[in-house]
Amino acid sequence: MKTPQHDPIDVLGEVYESMYEDVAKDFHQAEHKSRPLLHALIDDAQAKAIKLEKVSETDAVRLGDWLKRDLDDAVNYLAETDYELKDWLGFETTFLKDEFLDALLKTADKTTVALLALKEKASHSVYHTGEVVGPGTLVCDNCGEKIHFHRAGKIPPCPKCHATDFHRNFK
Predict the structure, then answer these.
(1) Domain positions in the chain
(2) Residues 91, 7, 158, CA angle at the centre, nearest 5°?
(3) What is the mean pLDDT, run by run of 10 residues, along the chain of 171 residues?
(4) Fewest beta carbons less than 10 Å away: which of 1, 73, 142, 155?
(5) DSSP-assigned letters across all residues of 51-108
């Protein structure tokens, strides 16, 4: 009998979510929250993923970079607007796993966001086909088509025009 094979794309999404949940738990428990601390926790999660042989070193570094991008993007959005997390996601939060939503809400609470927003303003992130992204809605920079991610996953080319650059769906 053959052992079932896991899709490498699904594995990257699962490791992304696992890394995020670890980071969110440690960040929430930290006394002095800062963007450098958040990034250091992500680096620690990368090292853990490599040590546990969940993914290759190259994939762990890429996942860490994408996780930093997503969290920076969410924090900047929440700090710069009066909108809520569901607005950044582009859909209702009922579609998210309870554990992931809880971790996301703890990381993106208003107090944390206010502290992290003291950093100079960063430009909004660009997302590219082939990268892994957390839950939310991306908009094609070329045609405006929306792609919804209800869990972490690899960004495909735009289903409408096949372009490869996206941004978050900000209101």
Answers:
(1) 8-121
(2) 45
(3) 53 89 83 81 91 90 91 77 70 62 59 50 73 91 91 94 87 53
(4) 1
(5) HTTSS-HHHHHHHHHHHHHHHHHHHHHHHHSS--HHHHHTS-GGGS-HHHHHHHHHHT
